[in-house]
Amino acid sequence: MSELIKLKHEFAKSSDFLVALGDKKRQNIIIALMNQKVILRGLQVTDLVEVTGLSRPAVSHHLKILKDVNLVDYRREGTKNFYYLTHENKEFKKMKLLSEHVMEVVKCNRQI
Amino acid sequence: MSELIKLKHEFAKSSDFLVALGDKKRQNIIIALMNQKVILRGLQVTDLVEVTGLSRPAVSHHLKILKDVNLVDYRREGTKNFYYLTHENKEFKKMKLLSEHVMEVVKCNRQI
DNA sequence: TTCAATAGTTTAAAAATATAAACCATAGAG
DNA sequence: CTCTATGGTTTATATTTTTAAACTATTGAA
Fold first, then answer.
1. Nearest residue of B to residue A40 by CA position?
2. I need a surface site. Which of A82, A108, B4, B61 has the fewest CB within 10 A?
3. According to the model, what pLDDT value does residue A56 have?
4. Where would I find the HTH arsR-type domain in this sequence (chains A, B) (predicted)?
5. Is the pLDDT of residue B111 over 70?
6. Which CATH architecture has domain A3-108?
7. Cβ contact A8:B27 at 8 Å
8. CB A61 under 7 Å to nucleic chain C
């Protein structure tokens, strides 16, 4: 399989992730989840409502999107859900690889 | 300025680029632009219409979005516009840096 | 200078996405 | 068991994005 076909698939697979990450409201949620010092037990939906200024269903909706692309996960404690960023960084590793692969291909394909 | 605030800005600045890159139709345009062997004179809108199966205004629209985030550029020859991928890869370099920075922050912020 | 080719723009419609309101489900306290 | 807190889901609406059709502009050839 050619490099380009591989890259095409790599692109397609990263599509949902890139769109999820591109949204400014979701970026704010991500930043809020990063911004937890010392004891990282995660943030509840209501915490994120406060931080982001979005409504609860909106936060819930965006969290679902972020969860679907493996950017966040949550832990349930009683009736409370504590959301946190997934820490294996799989998706960001893929994102790094994608950018590297693109640059390799473009480097060989210089404009004359 | 804290690392996190910097990262927040880095995220925000990459927002349009990520969304532009996440769209599958635009990915197809990008792949088509990469898929030019030997003599790289660029592709015209009509070429891209054929390759992608989109209408001309749609291709034109997506090219504008890709151009706005510095992913493509074009060269005019008479009435023809030849589109090509920008070859400095500035945006992909930023994308690589962004993923690295996120991983650094998340690494320090481990879940207990 | 008129015609054909190329491609951008505007406008209107269609599709997708995001939001809020109302509702439902579950866990734990009393 | 009942009540409250938390938060997910459904539905209807609003907004945004995408698309196509029609129009316009520009270049070069006849």
1. B111
2. A108
3. 92
4. 7-112
5. no
6. Orthogonal Bundle (1.10)
7. yes
8. yes
Count of CB atoms situated within 10 Å of the CB of A13? 11
- The band of A74, judged by pLDDT with boundaries at 50, 70 and 90, is very high
Question: Taking the domains of chain B in order of start, what are their residue ranges?
Answer: 3-108
Please tell me if residue B19 touches chain A, with a CB cutoff of 8 Å. Answer: yes
Chain centroid, CA B58 distance in Å: 17
* H or E element, residue B102: helix B90-108
- A88–chain B Cβ distance below 8 A for any pair: no
DSSP for chain A, written as a single string = --HHHHHHHHHHHHHHHHHHHH-HHHHHHHHHHH---SS---B-HHHHHHHH---HHHHHHHHHHHHHTTSEEEEEETTEEEEEE-SS-HHHHHHHHHHHHHHHHHHHS---
